[in-house]
Specification:
The complex is a heterodimer of chains A (192) and B (706).
Chain A (H helix, E strand, L loop, with lengths): L2 H12 L11 H8 L2 E11 L6 E11 L3 E8 L3 E5 L3 E4 L2 E4 L6 H12 L4 H6 E8 L2 E8 L2 H4 L2 E8 L4 E8 L4 E8 L11
Chain B lengths: L4 H21 L3 E3 L9 E2 L2 E2 L2 H8 L1 E8 L2 H17 L5 E4 L5 H10 L7 H8 L3 H14 L15 H7 L9 E3 L2 E6 L2 E10 L4 H15 L6 E6 L1 H35 L2 H25 L2 E3 H6 L1 H16 L7 H18 L8 H23 L21 H18 L6 H4 L4 H14 L5 E7 L2 H12 L7 H4 L3 H26 L15 H15 E4 L2 E8 L10 E4 L1 H35 L3 H21 L6 H22 L6 H17 L5 H24 L3
Parallel strand pairs in B: 1-10
Antiparallel strand pairs in B: 2-3, 4-8, 4-9, 5-8, 6-7, 7-8, 11-13, 11-14, 12-13
Chain lengths: 192, 706
């Protein structure tokens, strides 16, 4: 279940743009207006050494000042919940403070939700553009340790929600996650 | 002052003895740390000082700034500033490894590492579960594997690395420094270990560090904390206090001696006697004990009191030769005091032994000196007698005193909490609170393991880690035995599950275990020298690992010990207090036998002032809200020694010489002054002795017939 921890950190590391991005850019408006989003995700993972690709799907929910829930339904059922202080994966529950670099990640998230992208610029080189009311950010890690694992991250979204995340790993693994809005509330369904 | 032949021979003997002692003992190591007072034991053996001093000799330098970069650059400047001074015998604990370097290390020796859960499954031959877990993670996880999939298709290394317990430290490694962020502030910690050297080296190093640590501008702050600062401050303050108190006590002595004899020559003779006593005590303690603690000398002030008494008694007598009655009284006083200190020699606490040797040596020196010292070359010595007559309410006082003492004894409480024993200065206390807030509960417990070599220490630690989760050296460096076992288990997993995994994942090639070497100490040291330095101490009696823990655990290994520093000191002091109390009872017993032999039916009467004075003191201090400590009990030995002297001289004569009163006043003021010393343990002893003497003297006054 530790894999979800990385997801958690990546998610927050990804949802922003670079310094040259104007303050009225779509992504800034998306971040500053973001209160709650519940999305269905469909994930496809391709690994170089393996001939076939792997698919998984589930529901992702983020709520400002409350936390996030990732409920994977296929191929296996798994849940990751994070409040502002704790995280739960299956039977395990622990304080977020015990995660490495949690304070950095928290500070980054807080700044992002206020439209401040400076923290992110220290980690990524960002290319941002908008087309047909859709924004896209291509993020290339500038941090040496992160470069050893991730080659590039691409985020796509509109004013209301995230539409797609693509992660290209340094070992050639490719991951694509497509998001679509869903009318479902996991808040009371899953506790941590 | 003219010396006779006997005196010259005595001084010559003392000087020769001293030269020999200094020749064999030079350079003299004066211990100063509190740690030296309380030796830690494991399996009945005292831990080497390299082990106990590991954390006691650490100084924390914390840089506080608004951003990591500012804190880092200020920390770098500070360290390079310190290094430019080339301070000898200190070690900087700084990590030089990046995450990438650590991961490369794991990949190079990947077959050496297996997480506890995976090991358990493999030992139970549950290889299928490991395959299923790996399959699930490969298919869905966002977390990139630590090693390429072809090298680690079962994700054994990823599992191991992700499962490494967080080290028991609130400090994370970042860009080669220990860092943490709290409430928007960034902190960087540099640990400096003082490896050797005496107290004066320590003072000089700390002075330099303080000088360099003064912030050059306002964008950062420097916080210094740790045991060496306390040792240095305590020593400096105590040294200053002792100097001041010694001057005041000597001045008081000078005045009292002059008032007693009205003769300046006698003043010199009293001081000469003091010097003889101190030197005799010093030579004796150096003869038997190579590393003397400076507290022994502080306690040696008690000796001064008794030596003064002997001088006063001797010079108050107008005869050139000591009359038999005076000799008898001085001899009995000497005998009873020595008898009181002899049981301390049986104690297993080094300080008690040192004090006993110092006191017995010094007393013997002064006793001999008094016997061979003639009167000053004058006949005008004045020391009239005095009596107790005319003082009202003796019986009322006696009963009142007994009641107060008894009431206090009901309330008596042994209390060795750190606050009751040591009170640091306000600024140092604030810095310690600040450091404790940052460190959390990381240094509450230490796991100590002893082995004949590093491999045996690693094996013992691995056995403990089977059932307890903590970050130890074996997390990074498994024993060779463990590495070979892991290799076999991994080989077995591949034999059992490779084909199935290949089919399920659709791998192009059949997975085979990557060939990796075993990691030995030398190879590990090249990359992680700081970790070896942090965890391992090599001594003459073996190799020790010292691992900080965030929680207490139960261990069964007889070569391992969970050490709780704060509790240990209070536990050990409780034990010492109980032993000292037993010794005190033995001393009273021994004293009673001697008194019985000398004074027959009056033996108990002679013992009563010491007994009531001692226990009454404990009672009154308890009534005043003081928790009784080992040091209170220790002080009672001095009370007994001195009060026996007063008793023997006051009961032994109908109109006693005024010298006894002056001896009492000098000791009372001397020890009373000691109560104002900054070092709390000495202050406790000063209070106890002063009050004990006062009470004993009052008991003598109350029960003596006019």
């Amino acid at each position: 279940m530790k894999r979800f921890l990385f997801l958690f950190l990546i998610f927050f590391s990804l949802s922003a743009g670079a310094a040259p991005i104007p303050s009225d850019a779509l992504v800034i408006r998306f971040l500053t207006h973001l209160q709650k989003m519940t999305l269905r995700f469909d994930q496809t993972k391709t690994i170089p050494e393996i001939e076939k690709s792997f698919k998984s799907s589930g529901i992702f929910q983020f709520e400002k000042n409350k936390g996030l829930i990732i409920k994977q339904e296929r191929p296996t059922s798994q849940v990751f919940v994070s409040t502002l202080e704790r995280y739960c994966t299956g039977e395990k529950s622990d304080s977020l403070k015990n995660l490495p670099h949690f304070s950095d990640a928290k500070s980054l998230v807080d700044h992002l939700l206020q439209g401040d992208l400076s923290d992110l610029n220290k980690i990524f080189e960002i290319i941002y553009f908008e087309k047909n009311k859709t924004w896209q950010m291509d993020m290339i890690p500038s941090d040496k340790d992160m470069k050893a694992f991730i080659r590039k991250i691409v985020l796509k979204g509109n004013i209301n929600h995230l539409k797609q995340v693509i992660i290209e790993y340094a070992d050639g693994t490719h991951m694509q996650i497509d998001y679509s809005p869903v009318q479902q509330d996991l808040t009371h369904e899953i506790k941590c | 002052m003219k010396l006779n032949v006997k005196q010259l021979l005595f001084l010559l003997g003392l000087a020769t003895f001293g030269v020999l002692i200094l020749f064999f003992r030079f350079p003299i190591h004066l211990k100063s740390s509190l740690n030296d007072l309380f030796p830690v034991q494991i399996a009945g053996k005292v831990l080497p000082k390299e082990v106990t001093g590991k954390y006691a000799n650490l100084l924390n330098i914390v840089i506080e700034a608004d951003s990591f970069n500012t804190a880092k650059s200020r920390s770098d400047e500070l360290i390079s500033g310190l290094k430019s001074f080339n301070i000898q015998n200190i070690t900087y604990h700084v990590s030089k490894n990046s995450l990438a370097q650590s991961l490369d290390y794991f990949k190079t020796y990947q077959n050496s590492f297996l997480s506890p859960d995976v090991r358990r499954l493999l030992l139970n031959s549950d290889t299928q579960k490991i395959r299923e877990q790996a399959l699930n993670r490969i298919q869905t996880s966002w977390m990139p594997p630590v090693a390429p999939l072809q090298d680690d298709p079962f994700l054994l290394l990823s599992d191991y690395v992700q499962g490494i317990p967080k080290p028991a430290s609130a400090w994370a490694e970042r860009e080669g420094v220990l860092w943490q962020e709290k409430d928007g502030k960034h902190y960087i910690l540099t640990l400096i270990q003082f490896n050797q050297g005496n107290i004066y080296d320590l003072l000089e190093k700390i002075r330099l560090i303080r000088q360099i640590s003064v912030p050059k501008n306002s964008d950062y702050q420097v916080h210094l904390s740790g045991a060496p600062l306390h040792t240095a401050q305590m020593f400096e303050k105590t040294k200053w206090d002792i100097s001041l108190i010694s001057c005041a006590a000597l001045l008081m002595l000078l005045v009292l001696t002059y008032l007693l004899f009205h003769h300046i020559g006698s003043v010199f003779m009293v001081f000469f006697n003091l010097a003889v006593a101190f030197i005799s005590g010093l030579w004796c303690v150096l003869l038997f004990i190579p590393d003397v603690h400076f507290l022994t000398f502080a306690f040696g002030a008690s000796l001064v009191g008794i030596c003064i008494d002997y001088s006063f008694h001797r010079f108050s007598c107008q005869d050139k030769k000591i009359p038999p009655d005076l000799f008898k009284n001085i001899f009995y006083s000497f005998l009873t005091t020595v008898a009181c200190f002899i049981p301390l020699l049986l104690s297993d606490l080094p300080l008690l032994k040192q004090i006993a040797v110092f006191t017995i040596g010094g007393l013997s020196g002064t006793f001999i000196w008094i016997l061979i010292t003639p009167l000053p070359a004058t006949k005008d010595l004045k020391s009239p007698s005095f009596g107790f007559s005319g003082i009202p309410f003796k019986k009322t006082f006696f009963v009142l005193f007994l009641l107060v003492g008894a009431l206090g004894l009901i309330k008596i409480q042994i209390n060795h909490s750190p606050e009751n024993l040591y009170k640091p200065s306000k600024d140092l206390q604030q810095e310690e609170t600040f450091a404790r807030n940052l460190n959390g509960n990381t240094f509450n417990w230490l796991l100590l393991i002893r082995g004949d070599n590093l491999q045996s220490v690693l094996e013992k630690e691995e056995a403990i880690r089977e059932t307890n989760l903590f970050f130890g050296l074996s997390t990074m460096l498994p024993s060779l035995q463990r590495q070979k076992q892991n290799l076999n288990l991994i080989q077995n997993l591949y034999n059992q599950e490779s084909k199935e995994l290949k089919d399920q994942l659709g791998l192009k090639k059949m997975p085979t275990p990557k060939q990796t070497p075993l990691v030995d100490e030398k190879t590990f040291q090249n990359q992680f020298e700081f970790l070896l330095r942090q965890f391992i101490v090599k001594t003459l009696n073996g190799v020790w690992s010292i691992t900080p823990l965030t929680k207490k655990m139960d261990i069964a290994d007889q070569d391992a010990l969970i050490f709780e520093p704060s509790k240990y000191v209070s536990d050990i002091l409780d034990r010492y207090a109980s032993k000292t109390y037993q010794i005190l009872c033995v001393s009273f017993g021994l004293l009673f036998i001697i008194l019985l032999f000398v004074y027959r039916k009056k033996a108990f009467l002679y013992l009563l002032p010491s007994l009531l004075g001692g226990f009454g003191t404990l009672g009154i201090l308890s009534l005043c809200g003081q928790g009784i400590t080992f040091f209170h009990l220790l002080a009672l030995f001095v009370v007994i020694g001195l009060s026996m002297d007063y008793t023997i001289f006051l009961f032994g004569s109908h109109r006693p010489n005024r010298s006894v009163l002056f001896a009492f006043i000098s000791s009372l003021i001397g020890f009373g002054l000691l109560s104002f010393i900054h070092f709390h343990m000495i202050a406790i002893m000063g209070q106890t002795i002063a009050l004990g003497l006062l009470l004993s003297f009052m008991v003598i006054w109350a029960i003596k017939k006019d």
